[in-house]
Amino acid sequence: MRREPKADLDTTPIPHDAEALLQQFGCRATRPRVAVLDALIRHDGPIDATTLTELAQANEPSIHEATVYRTIGVLSELGLVNHVHAGHGPSLVRLAGNNDLVAVCQDCGAIADIPQAAFGPMIKAVERESGFVLEPGHFALEGVCADCLELR
Amino acid sequence: MRREPKADLDTTPIPHDAEALLQQFGCRATRPRVAVLDALIRHDGPIDATTLTELAQANEPSIHEATVYRTIGVLSELGLVNHVHAGHGPSLVRLAGNNDLVAVCQDCGAIADIPQAAFGPMIKAVERESGFVLEPGHFALEGVCADCLELR
DNA sequence: AATCTAGTTGCGAGCTGGTCGCAAAACCGA
DNA sequence: TCGGTTTTGCGACCAGCTCGCAACTAGATT
Predict the structure, then answer these.
(1) How does pLDDT run across B8-46, given as a tens digit for each residue?
(2) Which DSSP symbol is given to A15?
(3) Does A124 contact strand C, using a CB cutoff of 7 Å?
(4) Percent of residues in chain B assigned helix, strand, coil, to nearest 5
């Protein structure tokens, strides 16, 4: 089983049509996969596997959560999708191309997208000082959101 | 059960003596707790619960992992200990007072401490733009360490 | 020192997020 | 339409962590 993208995210226009997208990337466009990718395209922003399963089941009721996990794996190998590790909860997935950072509220679990612009200098500083090359967009920031701050 | 520190981390000198420390914070200095806190003091840097259990068992062989988790909970309520959520692996704990950021290598799992100095401006920027007040030191940065970069 | 009691422990069961092996089904090129 | 792979659904399983409960203990009171 080859799992090398036939298409290239950087140069290929991405059709927002799950089936075409899968074929373009040279992988089988099965009904469950189409349902998962389609749900991911429709849903804007990071989402956990369980919720994604529910969304996909709207179109493809028999789809199993294990299949969703496997599909996420495939899409991620193709570079179509990113994992975001968020705190102690389940990890999140989102369409690639958005490299904003995700911030999770420790109190209420709210998720905010934070434009990554602010982080460039920090990433460089970390690399200079420790040799670590950060991959922002793969981990979540934790903190307290404005609403929960008021309630404290 | 009250769980409010009698001593204050900011003003109280911290004896590096687990038993005294526990008493100072007004909680029962049981043998298992002393063993856990002692291991934590001796071990420098973030550590996961399983490894911490093994260290503590060196002094207190019968100590159970559930007890270690509960002890971590208590110490954390007292502000003596911080959780760090690290990627997909188990979460890490460390003595409070060190607010450096933890960076985890995606490839080999190596852990690096990164002085938090570089992050001040970023934290402010995030607060300004999104209202989120980050708690650095509670989440881990992910990336690739210098060694693994070479191997790629 | 002996007693008392709230707080703590060890233990096993249980929960959640995620992975795996396998037989049956689906995809898709010929 | 058919055939060989790939993929799916399913249930079993694993790791990390939490919980309920009966037994035990620290440490205050006498």
Answers:
(1) 544 444 456 899 999 999 999 999 999 999 999 999 889
(2) -
(3) no
(4) 40, 20, 40
Distance from CA of B56 to the nearest CA of A (A): 24
Asked whether the predicted pLDDT for residue A14 surpasses 50, the reply is no
- Asked if strand C comes closer than 7 Å to B61 Cβ, the answer is no
The pair of three-digit structure tokens given for residue B104, joined into one six-digit string? 């985890």
Q: Please, is A37 exposed, middle or buried when counting C-beta atoms within 10 Å of its C-beta (0-12, 13-18, 19+)?
A: buried
Using the structure, give the distance in angstroms from the CA atom of A101 to the C1' atom of D1, rounded to a whole number.
Answer: 51
Predicted confidence band at A11 (pLDDT cuts at 50, 70, 90)? Answer: very low
Nucleotides of D under 7 A from a protein CB: 5-12, 15-20, 25-27
From chain A, the residues in CB contact with B141 under 8 A are 126, 132, 134, 139
If pLDDT is split at 50, 70 and 90, which confidence band does B5 have? low
When pLDDT is cut at 50, 70 and 90, the band that residue A91 belongs to is very high
How many CB atoms within 10 Å of residue A143? 25
- Domains identified in chain B and CATH numbers: 18-82 (1.10.10.10), 101-151 (3.30.1490.190)
